[in-house]
Amino acid sequence: MTHRDEAPRWRAVMNTLKKSTACAVAAAAMMSGYAHAEFSGDVVRIGIINDQSGGFADLSGQGAVVAANLALEDFQKLNSSIEVEIVSADHQNKADIGAQIVRKWFEVEGVDMVADGANSAVALAIQAVAREKNKLVFYAAVGTTDITGKQCSPTSFSWLHDNYNLVAAPVRNLVGQGQDTWFFIAADYAFGRNMVSESERILTEAGGKSVGSIFHPLGNSDYSSFLLQAQTSGAKVVAFANAGEQLVSSMKQWNEFGMNTGPQKAVAELMFLTDIHSMGLETAQGLTGVTAWYWDLNDETRAFAERFFARHGAMPTAPQASVYSSVFHYLKSVAAAGTDATDAVVEKVRATPVDDFYAPGATIRADSKLVHDFYLVEVKEPSEQSKPWAYYNVAKTIKAADAYPPLAESPCPLVNKVAN
Questions:
Q1: What is the dihedral angle through the alpha carbons of 156, 160, 164, 169, rounded to the nearest 10 degrees?
Q2: pLDDT tens, residue by residue, 353-402
Q3: Cβ neighbours of residue 26 under 8 Å, at least 6 residues apart?
Q4: Cβ(319)–Cβ(140) under 8 Å?
């Protein structure tokens, strides 16, 4: 056979190879296009919204953004092929501003999930937008029980606490010790009013009595008249249903007026690590409260805290740790679903175990609460402090089974009325 005889056969082989290669390239392109189509805009976008300039900025704020980015870094070590972006915004503790930001994120900027909240009134406004747009929200520092109660949504999750978790154990413990008359100094917005309502209900059930309550504006700085009313009420317990800068100012003035040496016991119904740091142990010593998480609990919590401190210059609060956990869990669920489509991701969120340094062995129940342990803590005396930021003595672990009201009592429309 001559070279001329081989030429037609060679050309036929080459044509076949070219066609096969073209088909392979086309198939690869189609597969690539399909893979990218699973993620809207070819990227998963997460929005962190909280108070970044006001009285709650220390307990959440930019620290929550740091925590979210740490979660992203850890996720991408395992799933480097999924592109994720994190954006953040300051809602300025205004419900209308929070709702506007989140609506724009969902409608224009392609945000798939929102985390934190850090204000009950803002959270309720965000909840309405998220329900309308069928988008996911993971709440951290949000106290109102309405979020997973009558305003619950199938795409929104309470990852940190609500007011029931915060007040039930202290009320029952103190009433059991004879501290059975209470007066409340509370912030005058959704969080404070809901916390007082929950406290008074549980107080009555425990055999105690509320002798009064007074509500102050958000951002108030002079608490003298409120403290005077608490003092003259004769209550054995003065409970502060405020947080952040408000609690710090309240307790400083409590000490300035000498009430710390009087017969009344102060209880912080919502207390964060950064609050204690701001007021100092001389002022805060002996103050009791409930927290969902504390950085100095064990080796795992301390390891995260060291990473966080290196970025933020402060130890993490419970809300900041919960933002890490919720962002990481969301991203794991996205990876498991193979898409950022809300319904598919929600299914994986509920089905994927939550077992991390923040909430080991936690579960998500039908009303969208993450069910985990809490801790009854007491602020140390200055002489007890052995290292920076180690402010709490853990008096008691409140097991998850005791930290939540029965599911059958939930007003959440998602829940069938059956016993938990």
A1: 160
A2: 899 999 999 999 999 999 999 999 999 999 999 999 999 999 999 999 99
A3: none
A4: yes
Instruction: Give the tokens for residue 220.
Output: 């108030």
For residues 218-238, give the mean pLDDT: 94
Side chain identity at 196, as an amino acid letter?
Answer: V
**pLDDT band at residue 189 using 50, 70 and 90 as cut-offs:** confident
CB 311 within 8 A of CB 70: yes
By CB atoms closer than 10 A (0-12, 13-18, 19+), residue 220 is: middle
DSSP-assigned letters across all residues of 119-161: SHHHHHHHHHHHHHHT-EEEESS---GGGTTTT--TTEEE-S-
Return the percent helix, strand and coil in the chain, to nearest 5. 50, 15, 35
Using the Cα atoms of residue 248, residue 253, residue 256 and residue 259 in order, give the sign of their dihedral.
Answer: negative
Decide: 186 and 216 in contact? Cβ < 8 Å.
yes
Tokens of residue 343, six digits: 């319904």
Note if the pTM is more than 0.70.
yes
Per DSSP (E only), the strands in 31-83 are 44-50
Instruction: Say how far apart CA 112 and CA 246 lie, in whole Å.
Output: 33
pLDDT attached to residue 138:
98
Question: Which of 338, 337, 180 is CA-nearest to residue 265?
Answer: 180
* CB within 8 Å of 140: residues ≥ 6 apart: 50, 60, 64, 115, 116, 117, 118, 159, 160, 319, 320, 322, 323, 326
In order, the DSSP letters of 289-347 are EEES--TTSSHHHHHHHHHHHHHHSSPPPHHHHHHHHHHHHHHHHHHHHTS--HHHHHH
